[in-house]
């Protein structure tokens, strides 16, 4: 695990989804998220006198659907609900109120895995690696610079946001991250500095409990790096590892169900040991190879990354559910020999094949 000055933790080999090494963000209209964030918006602003119907306007969601944990929602629906709140007169500072209510217990398997992180460094890593499971409206990253551990929050969907909505969502994310760190490390752990790319007031400092600088080039939350080696209150490596496998499956399911990347994924699953060329897949989808490449790029994906995902999913299933030899599994997922499969398993999971089969 890389660390040290200016070491960035935006991705590692196990979740690499493009040749550029950027985590694939969910598509705006991809309905894969439980409605917990929208429910929190309603709880927060209904208590302030805002009508539920106004919060849910243009989302195509009803109160009953938001109350049903089996309802699946999209990032666009969540952003629309936030936009409704801003349009109804809420200030961007109220984003803090929403963030303070979104504890890790609201995030399902992703949240529980974070709670069980063996160290705070692993908590930071895991939060970034699987952030796409958390209805993300900003891209989450972190890095260590000297004696600082720094969260950074970059835009993902800026083209559909007003300045007021952006300010609301940045503040919400700042408070969510601060809340999650306290959930795991203890209520006494607070950021030492917050940087905003937008304007603000002393109210920001009062709410966040740290010094704030505005009109900066980035949105960041700073913590002392010494917390990275601290063991969280409920640390349990075995439980975290088990939950990580569930998070891996959830990420894979999300990729299989969305857009052109999902269609390519499902076609490749039909003949995994003989992956067709990108041109052949494009022909099956009724488009040119150039168009397919452009559309995959627009979804922050690539043909090679999808093949890698298919191989990972099938290899892990064969190793855990069958007694097939390593060489046979390698052949079935398109590797030339067992040695290449062993290297891939280590890259995907950080474990050996023997460790995978013992699980």
Report on this model:
The protein has 359 residues and is of the alpha+beta class. The protein has 2 domains: 7-229, H-NOX domain (Alpha-Beta Complex); 258-358, Homeodomain-like (Arc Repressor Mutant, subunit A, Orthogonal Bundle). The protein has 17 helices and 6 strands. The protein has helices at residues 36-46, 52-55, 63-67, 75-87, 95-101, 108-115, 120-129, 163-185, 202-208, 237-256, 259-269, 278-284, 289-298, 303-321, 326-332, 338-349, 353-358; strands at 7-8, 138-145, 148-155, 193-195, 211-213, 220-224. The protein has a 6-stranded mixed sheet with strand order 1-2-3-6-4-5, with helices on one face. Helix 5 (95-101) packs parallel to helix 8. The chain is globular, with a radius of gyration of 21 Å.
Rounded to the nearest angstrom, the distance between the terminal CA atoms is 23 Å
Are there runs of 5+ residues with pLDDT below 50, and where?
1-22
Helices, by number, come to 17
- Can you count the beta strands? 6
What's the alpha carbon Rg, rounded to whole Å?
21 Å
As a percent range, the share of strand residues is: 5-15%
What is the CATH first-level class name of the largest domain?
Alpha Beta
Order of helical and strand elements: EHHHHHHHEEHEHEEHHHHHHHH
Q: Biggest β-sheet, characterized?
A: 6 strands, mixed
CATH A-level architecture of the largest domain: Alpha-Beta Complex
Number of domain units: 2
Query: Structural class, please?
Result: alpha+beta
Shape: globular
Task: State the helicity in percent bands.
Answer: 40-55%
Spatial strand arrangement across the major sheet: 1-2-3-6-4-5
Instruction: Quote the average pLDDT.
Output: 87
The CATH topology assignment of the largest domain is H-NOX domain
Q: Oligomerization state of this entry? A: single chain
């Amino acid at each position: 695990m890389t660390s040290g000055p200016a070491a960035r933790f935006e991705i590692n080999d196990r979740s690499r989804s493009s040749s550029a090494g950027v985590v694939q963000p969910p598509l705006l209209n991809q309905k894969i998220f439980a409605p917990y964030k929208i429910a929190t918006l309603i709880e927060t602003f209904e208590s302030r006198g805002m009508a539920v119907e106004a919060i849910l306007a243009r989302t195509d969601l009803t109160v009953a659907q938001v109350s049903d944990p089996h309802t699946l929602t999209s990032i666009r629906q969540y952003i629309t609900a936030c936009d409704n709140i801003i349009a109804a007169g809420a200030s961007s500072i109220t984003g803090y109120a929403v963030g303070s209510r979104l504890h890790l217990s609201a995030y399902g398997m992703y949240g529980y895995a974070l709670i069980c992180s063996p160290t705070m460094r692993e908590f930071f890593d895991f939060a970034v690696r699987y952030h796409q499971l958390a209805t993300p409206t900003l891209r989450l990253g972190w890095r260590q610079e000297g004696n600082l551990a720094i969260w950074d929050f970059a835009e993902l969907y800026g083209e559909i946001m007003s300045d007021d909505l952006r300010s609301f969502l940045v503040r919400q994310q700042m408070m969510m991250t601060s809340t999650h760190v306290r959930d795991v490390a203890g209520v006494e752990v607070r950021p030492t500095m917050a940087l905003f790319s937008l304007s603000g007031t002393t109210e920001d400092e009062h709410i966040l409990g740290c010094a704030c600088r505005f009109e900066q080039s980035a949105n960041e939350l700073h913590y002392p790096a010494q917390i990275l080696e601290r063991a969280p209150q409920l640390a349990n490596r075995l439980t975290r590892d088990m939950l990580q496998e569930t998070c891996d499956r959830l990420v894979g399911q999300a990729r299989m169900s969305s857009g052109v990347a999902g269609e390519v994924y499902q076609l490749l699953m039909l003949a995994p040991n003989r992956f067709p060329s990108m041109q052949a897949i494009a022909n099956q989808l009724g488009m040119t190879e150039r168009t397919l490449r452009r559309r995959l790029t627009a979804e922050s994906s690539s043909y090679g990354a999808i093949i890698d995902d298919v191989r990972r999913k099938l290899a892990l299933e064969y190793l855990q559910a069958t007694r097939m030899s390593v060489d046979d599994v390698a052949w079935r997922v398109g590797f030339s020999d067992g040695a290449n499969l062993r290297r891939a398993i280590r890259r995907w999971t950080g474990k050996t094949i023997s460790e995978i089969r013992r699980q």
